[in-house]
Amino acid sequence: MRVYLEIGKRAFQRELVYRTKNLAGLFTNACFGYLRAVPLLAAFEARGDIAGYNLQDALTWNWTVQALIMVVGLWGGWEVADTIRSGDVVSDLSKPFSFLGFWLARDYGRAIYYLLFRALPVVLIGQLLFGLRWPHHAITWAALAVSLALAVSIGFAFRFMLNLAAFWTTDARGVGGLGLIASTFLSGFLIPLAFFPDWLRPVVQALPFAGIVQTPADVFLERVTGWALMGALGQQALWAALLLGAAQGLVVIATRRVVVQGG
Amino acid sequence: MTAGTPDAGHGGPLGRPAPGPAGGPAVYVQDLCKSFRVFRHRPGALGAVRSLVDRSSHEVRAVDGVSFTIQRGEMVGCVGPNGAGKSTTIKMLTGILHPSAGRVEVLGLSPQRRRKEVARHIGVVFGQRTQLWWDLPLIESLDLLRYVYRVPEATFERNLATFRQLLDLDLFLSTPVRQLSLGQRMRGDLAAALLHDPEILYLDEPTIGLDVVAKHRIRDFLRRINRERGVTVLLTTHDMADVEQLCSRLLIIDQGKVLYDGGLAEIRDRLGRERTLVVDLAEDGGALEGPLSVPHACEVRADGPRRWLRFSRDDTTAADLITAVASRYRLRDLTIEEPEIEAIVRRIYEAGLDSSSPAGSQGSTIE
Ligand SMILES: Nc1ncnc2c1ncn2[C@@H]1O[C@H](COP(=O)(O)OP(=O)(O)OP(=O)(O)O)[C@@H](O)[C@H]1O
Ligand SMILES: [Mg+2]
After folding, report:
1. Are residues B283 and B235 in the same domain?
2. Structural domain of residue B285, as residue ranges?
3. Mean per-residue pLDDT for A151-178?
4. Strand pairing partners for B132?
5. Is the CB of B83 within 6 Å of ligand 1?
6. B138: in domain
7. What is the interface pTM, i.e. ipTM, of the complex?
8. Ramachandran class of B12: left when φ > 0, alpha when ψ lies in -120 to 50, beta otherwise
9. Do A171 and B48 touch (CB under 8 A)?
10. Under a CB-based contact definition with an 8 Å cutoff, are residues B215 and B245 in contact?
C-alpha cells in the first residue's frame, strides 16, 4: 500500500510544478462560473423554484460543478493513452505493481491537488460574488469527503478505460472524446439531473455518470440526507467498484494482446 | 554458444544480488515468435471508431523462431539492423509482450504468467525512453523505487550511495528530469534500474545519442556491475564498440531470426580473414609514385608516404608480407590493423552469414 501512497504523493508534487497553469485554469473556471450564473438569475427570476432548487441552490450547484471539473477529471486527461502511444508504458508495465493501481494512485494525488488549489478557491469566489448555500449539518462534510473520493474513482475508471483504447487504436482521443461528451451531459454538469424530463430522469440518475458530479453536488446541497444519503453513496460505491473491476479486466485483456509502440 | 560464466561474481565489493526465485539459466528462449497485426489507420474521431469495427490488417513477423540461453553472470551483446526484432525480443523477456509462439523463461519463470515476481528480479532500461518522473527532481524517482520494489532501507541507502559515486549523480540529483541532458538522464535511468539489486539487466540501446565520454563512462559502469555484482546483462546496440568493449558473446539478429550466436573472437577469426598492413615509407625511399606492388596483397589506400595493404590469412602470413614489403621498399614504420568487427557485422547484415564467410561455415546458432 505504501507504494501507492508514495505514487500519489509524487503526482501531487508534480501538479505543484504547474502552478501558473492552474492559475490560468482557475481564472477560466471563475469566468464560466460567473457567465453561467447570469442566465440562472434570469430563469429563477422569471419562474421561481425549479425542481426543488431555489435560486441559491442553483447558484451553489453552478459553482460546485465548476469546482469539480478538474477534481473528477470530467474533461479527460490523456496521460495513460499518451504513454501507450509513445511506448513509455513499457516501464510502468515492467514494474511489480498493479498498472491500474499505479494510475489510480496518481489520479488521487492529482485530485487532492485540484481539490485544494482549484475547487476550494472556485467555491470561495462563488461565495464572494453570489453567496452560496453552505451545509447546515456537520455530518455533511464527512459525507462529502466520501462522496468526492468515490466520484474521483468513478471519473478515473471511466476515463482510464477510454485511455486504454490506445492499445487498440492510434487515436484514443478521438474515441474518448465521444465518451467525454456523454459524461459531460449525463453527469449533471450541464444542467442538474433533476431538471431532466420525468421519463429520462430515473435513467440518468441510475447511470454511473451521476456519481461523478451530481451526487457530490447533491450531498453538498444536502438534497440527499439520511437514508437517501446512504443510498446515494452506496450507488456511487457500487459503480466505483464495478467500473474499477471492468477497468482491471480491460487491463488484463489489453496487456495480453498489448501492442507497445516504438523501438 | 560460448560457455558463459555460470557462477560469476561471488560477492565483490558491491555485494551480490539476492538469488533469483528459481534455478536454471538467467534467460532461456526457445523458438520464440511474435507477429504484429498492423491495422489501417483512419484519421479523425469517426475514423477511429471505424477502425475498431473494420479491422483490415496484415501481419508483421517481428520475431521469427529465436532460441538462445543466457547463463547467470554473462554479458551478451545483441545487434541487428533496424527493425530486426531486438526490442521486441527484450519486451517479451520482460513480460510486457506476450509471444505468439515459443517459450520464454527468466530465472526459471514465465515473465508473462509471473510478471510481478519476475519484475522484482530484473532491471530494464529502454534507451529511448525513461522511467523517471519527467517533472520531478531525479531523487524523487529513485526514492519511489524503494517502495515499488520494497527494498530494505539499508540496502537502498547503500546502493544509492554506490551509484551516486559510480555514476556521479550528485550534481543533478535534485534537478527536474526534464532539465537533464541525455547522458545525465541515462545515468539516472541506469541507477533506477539497479537500485533493487536485480539479477538481470536488460538494456535496449543504452548508449544511443551519447557522446564519446558519456559512452565510455556508461560502459565502465556496466562492466563493473557485471563483474562486481554478477548482474547478468543483455544489451542491444548499434554501436559495435559497446559489444567489443563489454561482451564476450555476440548475438546477431536479422528479420526476426538469429544469424549468429557465439564468441566475439570467433566471429572475427572466422569472418575477418582480411587484415590490413599499414606502412610508412621512408621519405628517401623513392617509389613514392604509384601503388606498392607486393605479392598476396593489394594497396587499398594511400596517403602520401602512408600505404594500406590488404591481405588475407589464406594467402600469406603477416610476417611473410612484412618481409616481402621490407625487401622492396624502405620502411620507417608499420602497423597491422585487425578486421573491424563493425565491418564484419555490416557484411553479415548485407549478405547473410554464409555468403560473407569465406570458409562457408554453418551459422553456429544456438545449441
Ligand atoms: N507495436 C508494433 N506494431 C506493429 N509492428 C511492430 C510493432 N513493434 C514492432 N513492430 C515491427 O516489428 C519489427 C521489429 O521491431 P523492433 O522494434 O523489435 O526492431 P529493433 O530490432 O528493435 O529495431 P531498432 O534497431 O530500429 O530499434 C519491425 O518490423 C517493426 O516494424
Ligand atoms: Mg529497438
Report:
1. no
2. 274-337
3. 89
4. none
5. yes
6. yes
7. 0.89
8. left
9. yes
10. no
